[in-house]
Design brief:
Helix 6 packs across helix 8 and helix 7 packs antiparallel against helix 13. This protein is globular. It starts with 8 loop residues before the first helix and ends with a helix. By secondary structure, it is mainly α.
Length: about 525
């Protein structure tokens, strides 16, 4: 393609006062605009080119990203022929849904699938098919519509399946550890953007044109949100900010590659460390024993009294034994009654918590209502963030019945996971365009992620060294918090189970869900701060 060097005749007559604030940005957008590969027709004028890159057009285009067509199908195709045409809606859906199912099977039964994970596996399968000509390269209307519905549904569904109630009491010091880990991600992302932001912006702008001139910052904000929450937050931030589909795919690929190096490193550091609660109990017992010995050495009267009154001690011991026996008998009876009652309750809960037609329709109705409210009151850009906020408020307030929240969690978890897999499957539908975007931006993205992980880990290590006796600075808790932030709740639970830290399994799951709840807002705030600074 060719580079447009100026604005044209209409732009040269524009006075300097009319340019106003942001003159440099508009000039930069126009100068960096890459014209389509196809030769321009005689009807294409400088006014057309300027209109395509103006802020007004950009806002109009971005309005289609979330509730319209998130990934508009390309008008050109690298592969001239595809076995399934762009207009074959059910054919495209068949392959995309099949790729999601095949990705899940590969993750469970193949080494490659286990290594790269579900998102990259699903996206890679679609990419290969679009590049080889089975699917139309450049995407299709069916892929765009499936992507839009799955993203909008996945946001409330994943959060409806999470349990936020009593997080502070149930998680204990791990909450503070997670907040420190999230702060480390935010600080490291800021350092990374400060060092390589211009390079990343230039790489993505050259690949995608001036219409996506801020893709670098949008992807950086999405990666920051991804490393506080999860993949859901990455997609919500990128979609809300209007990032191009090729840049979204490139960022996801780079982040998953670095995740493959991060998780084994975390496991290696955690290996051999005991459960933190057991470690703290042993430390407390040793400290109490030491204190008792010191007291006996300093107070001879205490020893004399203890040794000179055996009858009193024996009488007390007998009485204590009788009382303990009585209490034990009562406790056994009570425990049997409680276990019987709990078994009955569990049977009832199993019936209520099982996935049924009623639970599926109720959950989908709730999720759709939340998405609609987000769209109505949040607009195009604020739809997903507001939907996130409304969902968290719905499941985490005293007016919503706890029984109802628990009853919808299993169904929400299953449907939310399905929606995410289907969404990742659609990301590879652009075919060769995704490969070009990855190749152009992989080096700056790799440096950005290297800085993010290095600063993140160094910051947590320094906190542990400075405050080693604080419960939230315990290395096991910091590793769990880091894993929950970088990898999400499932990764944190897997780490706790692998290292035999049972006291951190449920808290790790809950702080991971907390990251899902706040990650999107932090990502959008990150973009707003650095976008304003650049302006």
């Amino acid at each position: 393609g060719r580079v447009v060097e100026g604005f044209g005749n209409s732009a040269t007559t524009t006075s300097s006062n009319a340019l106003g604030v942001g003159q440099r940005q508009r000039q930069h957008s126009a100068i960096r605009f890459i014209a389509p590969r196809a030769p321009a027709t005689t009807a294409t004028t400088a006014n057309d080119l300027f209109g395509r890159t103006s802020p007004r057009h950009r806002r109009h285009s971005d309005s289609h990203h979330l509730m319209g067509t998130l990934v508009p199908p390309s008008t050109t195709s690298t592969v001239p022929f595809s076995l399934i045409s762009k207009g074959d809606t059910w054919g495209n859906l068949m392959v995309l849904v099949g790729n999601a199912a095949l990705a899940l099977w590969m993750v469970r039964h193949t080494t490659v699938g286990k290594l790269v994970g579900p998102p990259i596996t699903a996206m890679g399968l679609t990419f290969v098919m679009a590049t080889a000509g089975l699917l139309p390269s450049g995407g299709s209307l069916a892929a765009s519509q499936l992507q839009q519905v799955c993203l909008c549904w996945a946001t409330p569904l994943v959060l409806l399946g999470a349990d936020f109630r009593g997080a502070r009491q149930r998680c204990g010091p791990l909450v503070w550890s997670f907040l420190l880990a999230a702060g480390a991600t935010l600080a490291s992302s800021a350092v990374g953007w400060w060092l390589v932001g211009d390079w990343l912006t230039a790489a993505l702008s050259v690949s995608h044109g001036a219409l996506y001139a801020e893709d670098g910052l949008k992807i950086a904000a999405g990666i920051m949100a991804r490393n506080v929450g999860g993949g859901l937050n990455y997609m919500a931030v990128c979609s809300s900010l209007g990032a191009s589909p090729m840049a979204i795919a490139a960022g996801l690929c780079a982040d998953n590659i670095f995740g493959l190096m991060y998780f084994p490193t975390t496991s290696a550091i955690a290996a051999g460390r005991p459960d933190p609660e057991e470690e703290e109990e042993e430390s407390t017992t040793i400290a109490q024993s030491t204190t008792l010995v010191v007291d006996k050495e300093q107070d001879g009267a205490t020893v004399a009294v203890s040794t000179s009154t055996p009858s009193v001690l024996q009488t007390t011991a007998v009485t204590s034994t009788n009382v303990t026996s009585a209490i034990t008998d009562t406790a056994v009876e009570t425990k049997v009654a409680q276990e019987t009652e709990m078994a009955n309750n569990n049977n009832d809960d199993d019936k209520k918590d099982s996935i049924s037609i009623e639970s599926v329709t109720n959950v989908l109705c709730t999720a759709t209502t939340l998405v609609w409210l987000g769209k109505v009151f949040g607009g195009t850009r604020g739809a997903l963030p507001l939907c996130t906020l409304l969902t968290v408020l719905l499941v985490n307030n005293k007016f919503t019945p706890s029984r109802w929240v628990r009853s919808i969690q299993p169904t929400s978890q299953v449907l939310g996971t399905v929606a995410l897999y289907l969404f990742f499957s659609t990301l590879g539908s652009q075919g060769v365009a995704v490969a070009e975007s990855v190749r152009a931006s992989m080096i700056p993205l790799g440096i950005f992620l290297t800085i993010l992980y290095a600063v993140h880990g160094t910051w947590l290590w320094l906190l542990h060294k400075l405050f080693p006796h604080q419960p939230c600075m315990n290395p096991q808790r910091l590793l769990m918090a880091s894993s929950a932030a970088i990898g999400g709740p499932a990764t944190a639970v897997a780490l706790a189970q692998a290292q035999k830290w049972p006291s951190l399994e449920v808290p790790g799951l809950m702080v991971g869900n907390l990251g899902d709840a706040v990650g999107t807002f932090l990502g959008i705030a990150f973009f707003a701060v650095f976008s304003t600074g650049a302006g």
